[in-house]
Design a protein that fits this description.
This protein is α+β, with helices and mostly antiparallel strands. It has one helix and two strands. The protein is elongated. It has one domain (2-80). The longest helix is centred in the first third of the chain and has 22 residues, at 2-23. A hairpin with a 2-residue loop joins strand 1 and strand 2. Strands 1-2 form a two-stranded antiparallel sheet.
Length: 85
């Protein structure tokens, strides 16, 4: 029984260590969660435009099927969204 507890403890420690080392590798350029990289609603390296409309200061847009109410996730050069179809 004691051996099982030790093995579970070591396994848990290894999983936590691996997960924390991966999260430290993210950059400020990524937007991995609601309200941004620091969950503050501010991008530390951001320089957003002050004004925009349908064509001004828009880099790209794409149609998305269904309705989406989630926060977009930006990781590197990709944007992830969810929709309900």
């Amino acid at each position: 029984m004691r051996r099982l507890i030790v093995q579970c403890s070591v396994l848990t420690f290894a999983i936590v260590a691996a997960a924390s080392s991966q999260s430290n590798g993210q950059t400020d350029d990524n937007w991995p969660q609601w309200r941004g990289p620091l969950a503050t609603g501010v991008s530390p390296k951001g320089n957003p435009p002050i004004e925009w409309n349908e064509t001004k200061n828009v880099r790209w847009k794409t149609p998305i099927p269904g309705k989406g109410h989630s926060t977009p996730i930006v990781w590197g050069e990709r944007v992830f969204v969810t929709t309900a179809i």
